[in-house]
Every structure is written in C-alpha cells, then in structure tokens.
Amino acid sequence: MDAQGRGRDEGIDPADQWVLNPDTGDYELRLTPSSGRSSAAAGTTDARAPGSRRRSKPETPPPADRASVPSQRGGRRGAGGGRGDRDETRKPGSRAAAPAAGRRKARPKKAVKKKALVWTGGVLAFLLVGVGTTGYFVYQHFNANITAVSTDGAGTGGFSKDRAINVLVIGTDKRTGDGNEGYGDAGSVGHADTNILFHVSKDRTNATALSIPRDLITDVPDCPTTLEDGTKKDIPGTTGGRFNASLGQSDRTPSCTMRTVTELTGMEVDHFMVADFNAVKSLTTAVGGVDVCLAKDIDDKDSHLKLSKGEHTIEGEQALAFLRTRHSVGFGSDLSRIEIQQQFLGSLMRKLKSNDTLTSPTKMWSLAEAATKALTVDDKIGDINQLRKLGMELASVDPKNITFTTVPVLDNPDDKATVILDKSKAPQVFSMMREDVSFTAVEKQEKAEEKAAEAAKLKGEMADAADVRVDVYNGGAPAGSAQNALDWLQNEKSVLKSTNKANAPENVKKTQLVYAPNQADQARRLADLMGMSASALKPTTTDAGEMDPMVLTLGPDFTEAGSPLSAPTKAPDKIQRVEADKAVCAQ
To answer: Which of 339, 467, 545, 580 is deepest in the core (most CB within 10 A)?
Structure first.
C-alpha cells in the first residue's frame, strides 16, 4: 500500500491535505495520486460538472483512526472519497478537467477568507481568552482531547441566541507539566490566578472582557463540590479572603470560582474554561507567535522575561514569561500585570484574524489540537460540537467592539498586598455589563431611542424629597436590603416618610415602584434619587388617598443603596480599559 492508501503522502503534514471547497464552505481531505500513477490506476473517479476537479480514491482504506471525518451535514467522508454518497453527473458533452498531480486549482482570495472566517469562528472566539476549536475538526480525535469537570449547579448550564453569554476563563498557577517546576511553588494545588469574565451582549454587537484581580478581598460562598473521585462535598465559604482562594484551596473546583464571580458581580456565569501554564505555551506556539510591544527594556528575574524595547514576536516559554511578569512593568503590582495580559490577548486575537492564520490548514489543525488538549472546560460544553456552537456565537463580535477592562479597586488600607472593591465605580461597571451597555459605544440606534423615550417619561414636576411617602419591601434583593435602602433614603436623601415593610408577598425580577396617577411627582423624585429607569415605574389606574404610600419593591438588581438601578450610559471616569483592536506598548 502506497502513501495514498495510507491516507497521507510521505513528508506532508496531514493538515495540509485539508482543502477548503469555496463552493460549499467545507474542508475536504484531498489526496493527489502518487508520482507516475494515473488517475485510473489510483481508483475510480467521480463524474463531475464542467471545470470541476477530478479526485482519486485510494485502493485501500486508511487506518481506523484516520478513516473518516464527520460531515457538517451528518454524513461521513472517506479519506479519499470526496463527497461521500452524493452523486454528481456531468452535463451532456462535457469533460471533467483533471488537474496535474500535486497541483490545486487556484481559488479567489476573497472566497477563501470569507469561508475560513465562517468555519474557524470557534478558534477566533475562544482564543481571544485562551480557548479554541473550529467546526471542521468535529470528530472523535479532538473530542477525546477534552477534559471536563462538573459545574455543580453553579452555571446556567447553557446559552442561547436570545440572551447574553457569560464565559469565565480561569488561568491557574498550578505548576504541572514539563518545564514548569522551575517557576517555584511546585507543590501548589493552584489558585484562580488570572480571571476574565467574557461577556457578550444579547445582540452580539459588543463584548466586555472583565479582569478580576487575584488579590481582591471578597467573600467566597459555600460551594457544593464534586471531587476528582466523584464524591460530593460541601465546602464552607470564607469572608474577607483573596479571590484567588476560590480555586484549589480546601478542594475547591472551578465551580466555586463561578459562584464567587456571581456573588461579586451579580451576573450568572454560563460556562467556565481553565488554562494552565502549558496552555499558554502550546497555544502561542500553535499560532506562530504573538506580537507584543515594550516601551522599555525588561529583565525580570522572577518571570525570566528578558526583552529589549520595541516590538517582538513571542511564543512558548517566552510568552508565558511575558504574561507572568509584573515587577518590571507599571507599578510592579498584579494590576500592572493584568494590563499587559489584556494587551497580549488583544494581539493574539488580531493574529488569529490575519490571513496568515485563517488560510493555513496546518495552523488551524495545530490550534485545535493544542486548545483541546490544554484546556479544562465545564461538563456542559465537554463536547466538541457544543464548543463549536459556543465559539460561533462569540466569534460574531467585531474586535473593535471588544473592550478589556478591570474591576475597579482601591488599595486595601489594612494590607498593602491586597485590594478592595471601589464601591463608587465597580457597581457601575457591573451594571453596564448586566444591561449590555457597550464600553465602546456601539449600541444600535433603537437602543438610544429607547433610552431617550425612557428619559422623556421621567420628565415633569418632581415633589420635594420630604413629601415622598413610600413603603419599602424586599422582593428578592440581598438580605437586609430594605433596611439598607431605608437608612439611605432617610439619612442621606431626607425621604423621611418611608417605612421598612420587610419581605414582599412575592419576589420580583427587577426593582419596581408602584404608584398612583396623583403620586407621579413623588415617583419621579424617588426614581431620580435611586437612579431608576422609567421601565421600573408601574402606575396604577386610580388615585391614592393623601396618606397612602407608594410601594417600592427591591429586586435582585438592587445591590446597595446609592448604586443606580438603571445602567449608566457610559463607563465611570478613569477606569482601566483597552480595546481589542488597539496595539498598545507595555510601559
């Protein structure tokens, strides 16, 4: 059996034999006849339409592990059998044009780029944050590479086209894998060292990649957990500890980090993905290196990064060193390291969007191989088809509308090695993400019109704060919220005719204010004080008595008195952020 019968030519990478058919958008395994053999000798040929390519079938089937690849249409293609069971006939009098052995018919560059973008959507989307796969690798070889662990009920368990998507990407500092023991802390079980919540808007026009500092002081909730041996364990929560302790410590798994993110931001997480040191090295090598820029020379003995000022292309160990460096950039803190990580990921995304990557089957094969081997995902996407579907959803966002930002924090006055939440800015950032407000101001025109309409509804005469009469109920907000709101209204805003009525008869999805027509001026004042949108105001049809109060029911969107309940229209001033399409030099 010759090279064709074995399913590959000697000296040719198998990925190079995957060829894009611009007419169908499918990648097909094209095997040309060996030198000196005719097409007839190699096997039978399909009857083709005029001008089409003649393909040979091997005399002997390939080995089982390379026998076939599932088609996107549900069929299977033999290694040299072209389009499977589909029969194609020539028009009367036409001839099949057979190309010379070893040569491929030239394809228009535009068609190649367009189709490659479609079928490599998964790679482009996930590798923005260190994750990737693509549609035409949907078969058992890659499926077997995937490692999946339980969400323990912490995630939503899915995603759909009619709502936003939240994917948590966790970079662990666990020193497993070849060559990583030299970084110190070799026996560590790992922490949630690098954390990015990747939020894609409902309409897929924009996305925000929110970095969460590992040294942020926060509460870790109780975590029901499935251990490696399959047993269940309820891990008690902690208060006032570092965010990075949400993974690895006390047997915590990524599902516990998911719960911690939800507690912190108020956003439900759909899925998680975990990458270790080896993931960084293998993925950057597979893509052929990532371009970075330095504003100064760096010689960091801790991270082992040594680079001169200017532009460089880095991969493997050098790329890992770049992502780990912090003492030689910015203020030398973990926050400075977060900034260069975001710059790196933006550059990686731009590299993946380049023709050099999109039109290279070899690179795409290597990327899929590296990504599926290097990453751990939750069990709801522990299948190559689910990863592909999610990737195609995420890939639809234009890089210019993707913003990397960081949770606003302040230095911890009690411990200079840690940070605390900036309560004047962080709630605004979380609110913007929950409400799909773009950090790059790319909302559709109808969204702007909706906001204008809501603002118009709020216009009109407002009562004095002292004349506002309202009963406050907790209808799904955190415990103690009604009293928290009451104290703020009375002590900070002089709404003295307000009363805490404890729990509402039933919970609400969002905070709402029910008022009578003759209380409209009071409703406007309260909405203005609390930052409520017009959609939260629910008028009744009959007037109220002079002493009757309005009814304010606090929902899950209420986090703290003083935090606006409607999403701000722009980001807070002086928060760290960078757009994915911008090249930035590390300072």
So the answer is: 580
